[in-house]
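Contributing new records

If you add data, match the layout below exactly. Sequence lines come first and carry their own label; structure lines follow with theirs. Keep one chain per record. Anything else will be rejected by the validation script.
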Amino acid sequence: MNTKKKFTLTRLLMVITALIMFLGPVGGLPTSASASQASFIVQAANTELAVQIVEAHGGEITSRLDIIHAVAANLSENEAAQLRLDKNIIAITPNGEVKASDDNKPGKQKEDETKGQTSETPSADFGNVVGADVVWEEGVTGSGVAVAILDTGLGGNLLQLTQGTQDAKKNKNKSSRIVAWKDFIDNSKKPIDPNGHGSHVAGIIGNSQKGQDGEWNGIAPDVNLVGVRVLNDQGAGTYESVISGLQWVINNKERFNIRVVNLSLVSPVQSPYWADPLNQAVTATWASGVTVVVAAGNSGPGAMSISVPGNNPYVITVGAFTDNYTPSDWSDDYLAPFSAAGPTLDGFTKPDLVAPGAHMVSVVPTGSYLTTEYPGNNLNGNYFKLAGTSQATAAVSGIAALVISQSPKLSPDQVKMRLTS
């Protein structure tokens, strides 16, 4: 096929996907809709106008999504058809499913993985792999910076491992670095994590406990953590929950000094990135001055396998590699076969970088979904082994926090430039 025909075919595919997104549902997750209804994201020139039009047509509004001038609403087939004919409606998009980006299947455990680890504190090697230990020696540990983790929640042993390096040395727990919490799934007033994925991600970012090697088990052991629960106990959510979480982050970023958002979650590509509501919300978050780090997805290694919102050209999209159980030897490292690859549907090169994402050791609450479903991944104590671009994303979020802690005036664009350079 010649170049001209290839270009024409690509343009045709883009038009078809855009039409599918605009014309009707493609199997979203109508969590609050009845059997005769489906859940949609309805966008207009402003949120108030979207509210008025949806209510005028009999739709049930479930959330205001001011960040993208939209509402989430339950609509019958007839109501959705009427809204598509309204000239004041910009777009109607299925409230698509979002899920945690992990490869949770228990892998074959190498004999040397837990060799010598007889206490309840395994060592995490990823800090050495990315060079965080060198930064720690310079006194940079993420202090003063907050990372918002939009995930399944925070809970279990993590709550005792976030007191900061100084208190940790004294074996005290008086100043937890979990500075804020918001639950868009069950409206819990205190941090919980019935799935475990969010805690695992948060531990990679900011666990201040030291392993048997005498080094911290988190990339930025003094960083503040903000838990925003947008995925349920099965690790699933919707565009509505994630966009609501991003909106909350923007509204509270100054209060808690939120400088980084970690999105270890994925959704199938429905359209060009600029027409996707979740990507629009991610872009708005980036534009507000918050560095957004997202997972490439675990549907690799084929081309065009990058998921939403990893296909957004602005954000930092992270793929995964493995150190092959030899953290001090780079010569045998290789890309994880599950790590998604570009180009994206829109022709952008992704991921922007790769980070450790295999046999990642971090904390998970006892009795959570992950510990129950994958007991073979349990290590000593509350530690657990997972692989995926979720974990690689967390490593980069921790690194971004270290960079910003050292140079607080950096913009998201400048942070991205430093990391990708």
